[in-house]
Amino acid sequence: MRIRSLGVIDDAVVELSPGFTAVTGETGAGKTMVVTSLGLLLGGRADPALVRIGAKAAVVEGRIVMSPGAPAAVRAEEAGAELDDGALLISRTVSAEGRSRAHVGGRSVPVGLLGELADDLVAVHGQTDQQGLLRPARQRQALDRYAGDAVAVPLEKYGAAYRRLRAVAAELDEITTRARERAQEADLLRFGLEEIAAVEPLAGEDAELAAEAERLGHAESLASAAQMAHAALAGDVEDPEGVDANTLVAGAHRALDAVRSHDPALGALAERIGELGILLADVAGELAGYADDLDADPLRLAAVEERRAALTQLTRKYGDSIDSVLEWAERGAARLLELDGDDERITELTAERDGLRSELSLLAQALTDARVEAATRFASAVTAEMASLAMPHARVTIDVRQVEDPDGVEVDGRPVAYGPSGTDEVELLLAPHPGAQPRPIAKGASGGELSRVMLAVEVVFAGSDPVPTYLFDEVDAGVGGKAAVEVGRRLAKLAKSAQVVVVTHLPQVAAFADRQLLVEKTNDGSVTRSGVKVLEGEDRVRELSRMLAGHEDSVSARAHAEELLAAARADA
Length: 572
Prior knowledge:
- By secondary structure, the protein is α+β, with helices and mostly antiparallel strands.
- Helices cover 57% and strands 18% of the residues.
- It contains 20 helices and 17 strands.
- Strands 2-1-4-5-6-7 form a six-stranded antiparallel sheet. Strands 8-14-15-3-16-17 form a six-stranded mixed sheet.
């Protein structure tokens, strides 16, 4: 990693080697900033307060070596990133104003992608995680993670059934609690449908009746106009001397027809006048028929107006037109069918709910059985780890119990509370010495014992995590003496199969590291700069001496430091 302008670190390069890397330094030197930097690369929250005073932005860049088929590599490539000679380049920038940017494999990506990649890259174990593991809910999650597929498979099935049960119960509750409202809605729909059925409207009927009413209401004026137009075209029998259009057109046609042979143009005009005469005769005939057929019956007009009034009653309530009224009736009939089917639906939902409860009961028991089996293995593994951490007589057990709830579902005669993760409550118990009653670890251990217990828990969890790198942030706090040596030895053993990074203040732990990094700061009176350097040979002895005695030149501390290094090498 390269870290720039982050907290007390001005510009530093941190190279984490394979095996066990210990990060040491005086209090306030910036060891925590190394952990924070890794957290930013893993998608952690961007806090503008982390930006070094006077800098515009803090930048953390990381180069992570991985195989091309690794899950994180596949996920990164799906996001458009590219590997550089088997390494994935990641950078995170946090501005002093709080803006954050992330890049993976040369591509700008959402910060959330870093968190997704982190799940397959690094497992962080720190004091914050210790406090989290003191909570029963986190302990259950941790046990499930340790159990692997033995719990994950039935938990997935249980989760699906649990979500379906919630949905069925919600729908059933909605139907039953709103029965009155739904009955009222059904009554209104029945009334409307019956009212529409009584009128029996036809599509487009309102428009047709409106046109007929308009015609019937002006029948006399329409007939008079038709008769006058007919007389103008065909003549009036009561006025033999009158001139009509047909007579005039016929005269014009005869005049031209007599000389049409002398000029084709005039012959064409004669043809058109002849066609005009035919058209006038047709229109005159239709006008005569229209006047004869026109119905001026006042009874029919009254019937039309009465029908229109009935249709208007419908359009006032159910739509702007009869077509809209018919659409409402279609929707209302479908909704009424749905409402009338509530009783049948309630029966179906009740049966499904009862079946899901039975299924959940079986799946919950399978979860409990898997957790109990995993708890036994986990407790044995942690107890064995504690023996190697100078607590040979301590014993860890895990209590897996089903949570009772007066309003829960009956299981073996007991009302059990069903939750999204089953019915179990999980709690880690510690008996620190023979004869002691197991108690919750938060209450059953002293400060130093708690740190060792939690470290044992973290190491066991680390063994179940399919990630290549583990970061332990001062989980050895409160440990000293022989126990500290055992902590270092145990971390070194873990580092044989994975990359382990430990931020520590214990020389007994640092001595077991394959590489020791020193975070140091200098003060030139104006700007504090921190750097990270690899300690080898004499430099490492001096740093271990400082950690042992508080200063580097103590003869006894140097002897002790060399002894620690020799013991660690002999143990490797």
